[in-house]
Amino acid sequence: MSKIKVLIVDDQELILESLNIVLEMEDDIEVVGLAKNGEEAINYCEKNQPDIILMDINMPIMDGVVATEKIKLRFPLTKIIILTSYKEVEYVLAALSHGAEGFLLKAIHPKNLKAGIRVVHTGGTLISQEMADKMIKSMLKSTRDTGTSEPKLLEKNNEYGLSAREVAVLHKLAQGLRNQDIASALFLSEGTVKNYISNIYSKLNVKGRREATSKARETGILDS
User: Fold this and answer.
1) Does residue 124 belong to any structural domain of this protein?
2) Total of domains in the chain
3) Does residue 224 form part of some domain?
4) Per residue, what are the HEC states of the chain?
5) Whether the predicted pLDDT of 144 surpasses 60
6) The whole model's pTM is what?
């Protein structure tokens, strides 16, 4: 029987090693690689396509949402399980919109992690009841607070090709938040936020926040 080839992607060495040890104890699972960011994960997939990727969300250089989008476009047979914490609900939604097969909380019991990998490998999807409840509450709260449901913030179909995370950053720009505040609100580093803003300006062909916000509202990316 061929083993399930698993790539683990996380920027924390302790988590990488812990998951590696836990999974290597299984007869039907083989950890074929460890990566510390989304870019390394893509590079690995180009050389040796894994069956399953355990993907962290918040990482330097390239986060898990962007990596999921890129990997799913290029390697659609590779299945991705997002490893997440409660505070990253909106990014889980974004990753699912890009084709991830499901997600598990980082605090999951090892036996449930192994079972989840096997479920996804056989064509199933993963969404825990507790996380589903958390996501629903988050979406309802967003609707009450802003009059806009969270999934609308994560729409990726726009004429300028903005990613879900870029649209989320654009919303924060429109609210007048500073880079540091955007980073805190979206659980990103300030450097990552600057990169997203640069990408937004380039894609919209604008030179500043005010112009970007104005153009996004005119084209319907942001609500007027």
Assistant:
1) yes
2) 2
3) no
4) CCCEEEEEECCCHHHHHHHHHHHHCCCCEEEEEEECCHHHHHHHHHHCCCCEEEEECCCCCCCHHHHHHHHHHHCCCCEEEEEECHHHHHHHHHHHHCCCCEEEECCCCHHHHHHHHHHHHCCCCECCHHHHHHHHHHHHHHHHHHCCCHHHHCCCCCCCCCCHHHHHHHHHHHCCCCHHHHHHHHCCCHHHHHHHHHHHHHHHCCCCHHHHHHHHHHCCCCCC
5) no
6) 0.61
